[in-house]
TrEMBL record, chains A, B:
InterPro entries: Aminotrans_V_dom, Pser_aminoTfrase, PyrdxlP-dep_Trfase, PyrdxlP-dep_Trfase_major, PyrdxlP-dep_Trfase_small. It comes from Cupriavidus malaysiensis. This is Phosphoserine aminotransferase. L-glutamate binds at residue 43. Residues 7-350 form the Aminotransferase class V domain. Belongs to the class-V pyridoxal-phosphate-dependent aminotransferase family. SerC subfamily. Homodimer. Catalyzes the reversible conversion of 3-phosphohydroxypyruvate to phosphoserine and of 3-hydroxy-2-oxo-4-phosphonooxybutanoate to phosphohydroxythreonine. Binds 1 pyridoxal phosphate per subunit. Pathway: Cofactor biosynthesis; pyridoxine 5'-phosphate biosynthesis; pyridoxine 5'-phosphate from D-erythrose 4-phosphate: step 3/5; Amino-acid biosynthesis; L-serine biosynthesis; L-serine from 3-phospho-D-glycerate: step 2/3. The modification N6-(pyridoxal phosphate)lysine is found at residue 198. Its EC number is 2.6.1.52. The keyword Transferase applies.
Length: 364, 364
């Protein structure tokens, strides 16, 4: 088994083998142009076609209608955290509403508060960030500029259930760590964004999907680079985009479309992977504890511990000998974390669960 | 000759062959870790070492003392255009001074004007952007927050002479297209920045070198992601950095350090390349015209035309048959442009000059 397939990192995640093979070839020379992808101009016809294909693949995978714009940007979610209130919570709108459900959503709401007065409408601190609210049952001030949440909390391993109704205000979701892991009712959202380095490709590119009607509220006078309209009007080519990262993202969407067969198929694979891992963890009884309470367990990130740091370290060392890497928990909560992003195979998860079982037998 | 060596693109430019070879290997698996560079965590020891090496290589190449911070960011020069006035032209400072010497510096000053009142202290429009001022002879209001200029105008092929004296106000330079092409008196500057896709590596990463004393004037309350202190305090790892682009940048600085032997050596090579091309163009007499007036001709970008669009197209077609690509002039001024970034070899320039001579003989 290729060691790349045993990468459970929560940060820049694993990429499909066929994508890596294409990428390696493209560094030498793109079959289409004879030039390395690293030397291709962002104004070339080749790159125009790549941008178009990336957008079209996303539209097709998500069933996204034309009243949403799709743009590729730099700066990660952290730049979106600042740009969203700058663009969509101008004068005439009430303070935007934020759900604080974990490490990343808290960062989003803290950054928003630096830009505009904002409000936290649900705070997971009381549950130790082990539970989540129902999006359909939150009470939201209808004057709020928007409601923001993070659909999957990568650090704590929590994942929201999709909203069943339209929210009373525009709904904005950071889907960085579960984007394209399953089908999505995009019509519930006014904006969805996701940085690449989980399911989409290498770090350095962020996808923003924005309902065009939301653009009307952008105030005049923002710096051009921080105004979503700039990126949309210039087809993601206002300034030099991260050509390489967008190229790999395109390969990943091609893989999802042609090799996996779409998001329903991807969801079935992801369900099997997470079921396999959670069932193993439960079967180990008191030897392990899972951070998230059961109803909000993430299919993408499984945060757990063997009870103390010494045992966690011992397991990581054993796993590493079998080529299993990337299990370190996030520095903010410690413990272990297995991330099951799209490119992590069922075989890799099986190897991980077997390693867990052996470890617990040896240390029982 | 490898076709990659004949890439004269002004956008993402050519990369050294040895860097491409290492990069191809790293996509498969890094020798150090056995994992693809695209799957490496930005919190790994490996990446911490890469960040340190990138910084140290830059410090050594430039002879940069500790009172300058070095950070790697996203967003290109366009984001710097907005961040610089936000950070360094707060209350208590007069309007920052901008030199409008071409396409890119104009974009910088227009973006600054959206953020803070600013002033244009020299405007190249009257010369058709064919000439530049002397940095030492400009009259600058000593109350101006800073003086900003673009050291090399990529589009027009203009390059400033280095300042011989300290400017009366902090000097900030966008060196995106001539950074690391020659030694630099860094002590003349309060800030230098450069995005990667010319001499440094693939697009998606921007280097900012900031004198630490300048950080004291950053106003409170900026969004964290737009505050230089955030990136400096977190060692360029506040949010997920563009790991791949920074890795390739590190390889490029290693190549400059070990294979080229430093910036003096690089400068000699670049001088020979640009001399060869300008001498050929001059030898062709009226058949070609060079955009820039002689004293301000750039060593990095040579903008010229065979007189009309039909001839320019004909030359590009002939050149393409010999594997010479990337000669399209910038869309804003048309014509042709040969970019002679560090990785373009003397052999490639010779091939180009020979193609020019053949073309002129055939069309005389």
């Amino acid at each position: 088994m290729n060691p790349n397939q045993l990468n459970f990192s929560g940060g820049p995640g694993a990429l499909p083998e066929s994508v890596l093979a294409h990428t390696r070839q493209a560094i030498a020379a793109l079959p289409e142009t004879g030039i390395s992808v690293l030397g291709m101009s962002h104004r070339s016809e080749w790159f125009r076609d790549i941008l178009l294909e990336a957008e079209n693949n996303l539209r097709r995978l998500l069933g996204l209608p034309e009243d949403y714009a799709v743009v590729f940007m730099q700066g990660g979610s952290s730049l979106q955290f600042a740009m969203i209130p700058m663009n969509f919570a101008g004068e005439g709108f009430g303070p935007p509403a934020y759900i604080d459900s974990g490490y990343w959503s808290k960062r989003a709401s803290l950054e928003a508060a630096r830009v505009r007065p904002s409000q936290v409408v649900w705070d997971g601190a009381a549950t130790g960030y082990r539970e989540l609210p129902s999006l359909d049952r939150l009470e939201i001030d209808p004057a709020a500029a928007y409601l923001h949440y993070v659909s999957n909390e990568t650090v704590e391993g929590l994942q929201f259930a999709a909203p069943e109704r339209m929210a009373p205000v525009p709904l904005i979701a950071d889907m960085s760590s579960d984007f394209l892991s399953a089908p999505l009712r995009t019509d519930r959202y006014s904006m969805i964004y996701a940085h690449a380095q989980k399911n989409l490709g290498p770090s350095g590119v962020t996808v923003a999907i924005v309902k065009r009607s939301l653009l009307e509220r952008i105030p005049a006078g923002l710096p051009a680079i921080l105004d979503f309209r700039t990126h949309i009007a210039n087809g993601s080519n206002y300034n030099t985009p991260p050509v390489f990262a967008i190229y790999v993202l395109t390969l990943v969407t091609r893989w999802l479309r042609d090799e996996i067969g779409g998001l329903e198929a991807m969801q079935r694979i992801n369900q099997r992977k997470s079921r396999m891992l959670y069932e193993t963890l439960e079967s180990l009884g008191d030897a392990v504890s899972i951070h998230a309470s059961r109803p909000w367990r993430s299919q993408m990130n499984v945060a757990f511990t063997f009870g103390d740091a010494r045992l966690d370290q011992a397991f990581m060392a054993e796993a590493r000998e079998q080529g299993i890497v990337g299990l370190e928990g996030h520095r903010s909560i410690g413990g272990l974390r297995a991330s099951l992003y799209n490119a992590v195979t069922e075989g890799a998860v099986r190897t991980l669960t077997q390693a867990m079982e052996s470890f617990c037998q040896a240390h029982a």
